[in-house]
Amino acid sequence: MSSHREAPEISKDPVADNTDVYAFVSPKKPTHVTLIANFIPLQKPDGGPNFYEFGDDVLYEIKIANKGKATADVVYQFRFHTEIRNKKTFLYNTGRINSLGDSQWNRPQFYSVTRIKNGRKTVLGRDLRCPPVNVGPRSTPNYEESLGSPARHRLGMRTVFAGQRAEGFHVDLGAIFDLGTLRPFAQAHLVPSAEAMDGVDSTKTYNVHTIAIEVPISEVSRYGNKPTDAMAPGAVIGVWATASRRKSRILNAKTGKTEGHGPWQQVSRLGSPLFNEVIVPMAEKDKWNVDSPSGDKAYAKYVNRPELAGLLPVLYPGVFPNLAKYTKPRADLNAILLTGIPSGVVPGFQNYTGPVESDMLRLNVAVPPTPMDRANPLGLVAGDPAGYPNGRRVVDDTTTIQLRAIAGLTIPLVDKSFTPDGATSKVTDGTTNENPAYKDHFPFLGAPNGGYETKPGSSMTTSSP
After folding, report:
1. pTM value?
2. Pfam families under this entry (predicted)?
3. What are the sequence ranges of the domains in the chain?
């Protein structure tokens, strides 16, 4: 699920690998929208001495479409550069890091932010400081107060952050990719094994690298305003993120480093969670990563007849009899994932971006935000229109939402003759985020897990009889 290792080639290049994209109206600042793109999946917090960091040779971008063509109308670009202060040590830090400018931090990162709008480039900020990774209480004491919070930078009416954060996405990867096991339904599986049990959060205690920017809605909306009518076409924006590398990469034998040459080539992209991970066949995943959302009509056939929807009745015999008999193209998934939901489907709501089929998060910025402490993690399908698939908040349980949608829960939105199977509303991978990973303010993802505090996982060996 999501996009942590979703395609063969990008899984070999984690520094450029999108993991999750979020877009939501800021709950405490409803005149602004928060855009988040996470990279570098499945970071073990204790992975030193060369800890995780953004790539100096990667162009990171968050893109917004607001004219219904699935092409970028507003782009925020992020470029990073790294310094080595002490070239005589192998250590990330030679003492306590008490501030972002502390000289005992040996490998600080800095970045610039550039906006492209109507073809015009504007540099919004230069030499902005990233925080260090969370090494542990001796190396990075009082992490959030001394390092995390000071790394939030004001750029006029905008706020920006780039650095390590706690992983906010939760999923039972081990079970799902073991022939589609959902631990709460394990006894009903075609290959029954253990008794029903809660899922195991595969990303618990892991970190990601986050790029987050909070901007006025008027800066990204079609008409340059703050829309108030949720049914107006100009109220909806499409959001996705990309990572690009130079087309040519050459190893410099003198420095031992790879150098990029030539124009930028997109190597990774992400809009809605799930799309490339589960919808697109393996043979086409790498191509999808270099394509533009405007060309996603080529992948519509996989949305209209998703492989997983056909597998569920086979893997769980007798659990999804109605889904097994449903042979129509999945117009519900096409709307959710490729066009947005048009008016008339959900009373008082729409996030339709037009007929161009494209993978983007679609956010209706006129829908008021729900306070974080009252947000329903099941989003729109649970009656909270501020949640996924209306954009995506960090608290949204997209794994459960999408599993239930694929299992048929959303078919009645477009086909009243279909009755979802009784199990559909109970489908889940059984996980919840057990970490206090969310904040009620920007950048919304919590302080990263520390390398010293993180407990190693357990292992199990199975031997042949």
Report:
1. 0.94
2. DUF4331 (PF14224)
3. 10-426
What is the crossing angle of helices 398-406 and 307-315, to 10°? Answer: 80
Q: How far apart are CA 447 and CA 29, in angstroms?
A: 21
Name the DSSP letter for residue 279: I
Number of residues written out for the chain? 465
Which residue is associated with the tokens 């009518």? 229
Q: Is the pLDDT of residue 464 over 70?
A: no
Residue 128 CA to residue 110 CA, distance in Å, equals 5
Contact 369, 25 (CB under 8 A): yes
Kindly state the helix (H) or strand (E) to which residue 286 belongs, with its residue range: helix 282-290
- What is the distance between the alpha carbons of residues 75 and 77, in angstroms, rounded to a whole number? 6
Given a contact cutoff of 8 angstroms between Cβ atoms, the answer to whether 369 and 30 are in contact is yes
DSSP string over 73-118: SEEEEEEEEE--S-TT---SBSS---STT-TTBSS-EEEEEEEEET
**From residue 174, how far is each of 201, 395, 407 by CA, in Å?**
9, 22, 20
What mean pLDDT, rounded, does the chain reach?
92
Angstrom distance (rounded) from CA 19 to CA 156 = 28
Condensed to tens digits (0 to 9), the pLDDT of residues 318-361 reads: 999 999 999 999 999 999 999 999 999 999 999 999 999 999 99
Using left for φ > 0, alpha for ψ between -120 and 50, and beta otherwise, residue 430 falls in left
21 bridge partner residues: 37
Question: How far is it, in rounded angstroms, from Cα 208 to Cα 139?
Answer: 19
Q: Could you give the CA distance from residue 385 to residue 365 in angstroms, rounded to a whole number?
A: 11
